[in-house]
Amino acid sequence: MTNTQKFDAIVIGAGAGGCHAAARLAAAGQHTLLIDDHDYLGGRAGTEIIDGHRVNIGAIALEPGGTFEETFQLCGATLDIREPDPAAVFYIDRKVVDVRKGGLGFLLNGLTKQASRVLDQFAKARTGNLPDGRESTEDWLRRYTKNETAHAVFRNLCAAIFAMNADEIPARAFLTYFTQKGAFKKFGFHPEGTMGAWTALAAAVERLGGEVWLSSPAEKIEVTDGRATAVHIRRNGGEPVRIEADTVIFNGGPRALVGLVGEDALGEAYVRQTREVLKPAANIVFNFASREDLMPGIPGIMTFGKTRHGRLCNMANLTATCPELAPDGWHQYVAYVVPRPALADFDSDDEVEKGFEDLREQFPGFDDKVKMLSVRVMRDEWPAQRTGAGYDMSVTTPVDALWCVGDAVKEYGNGGTQACAVSAKEAVDLALAASNVSRVAAEKLAT
Hints:
- The chain is built from 14 helices and 16 strands.
- By secondary structure, it is α/β, with parallel strands linked by helices.
- Helix 1 links the parallel strand 1 and strand 2.
- The relative contact order is 0.19.
């Protein structure tokens, strides 16, 4: 006999998208259960403790404003974001370029005589005049400039934001993000590590009458007459629990959803999309600390130009704004390396070594100055992005009352944790509308 319980809604996966979805459902009065198979919140945007340091597993930057902050306001959670100033600089030929006053135009004008041609294309993109989606960002840029440093900067922007190389992301997606989406105009770090944001949302779910179960993987989603009706969960490694719910939201990506629902329920077309449309994007995360300040006067994120192997894309100075992340006397950093290719198979060991060599080139004496905390290769079933920008699926599924959220179903050209928040809003709005229709129909039948 399986223990059966009833909730209005269940959210599977407590990553960024799942936490936002659960908080929105709870704020809407839904009796909500949020579960995750890990013993921590945040998934690939979680935080772990290493040698007294709060080390982020993947994502570090949180964007105030927009749908992201709206979720916190709806559920009454505190959003503690400290914004560095300057938030972002470029590091070109070992010189810091601060673009606060002139933006990308100021940077490009210092690199290439063809800057105006590139900037004209950004202006056209802002009016909706975009490439058709087949041309890569690298090919698009090469039509206007061949300057190697400019190409390196654009590659590293693509890599830092989307975990993709410039020859892998459609120019349409890249330009959509920079001209019509948030484009990281404002961002900050959390003093508890990125997981602090998800802890606040999970606490709000519980305060609003819901529950949060960690170390509790979903084993099966029941589908009856084309509708998701229940989820089987192995709670804390014990006996299975069957949760009946009117709404099921999944934050593990469409590919993983197939294993929980079954190909027959989702249909051939949807299953084929998961295989042919989605393109998981990889990166390598280097977390390290030093007694010496490696980025003096740079409290935010530094994007690189040309590096030895063209792998190192950016680096963040976390303790300049959040000293709580490290023990006293330590400066803490995270650097991101994106392999070539990022959307296909690669040699992890070789790419890690190339990342180290890029760091050594940019910071002479690197090995003697730093204490490595972790090197994490994010790929395959645990990628930096469940799909690269421009290769997303929909939040909807062929199964009624079942939606996906997260970075495999984001809006076209969107990125970051803001994109996960937007997917959660879309899915929850659809779920609440469908649930309301179901209630009205039930009431009519009853009368």
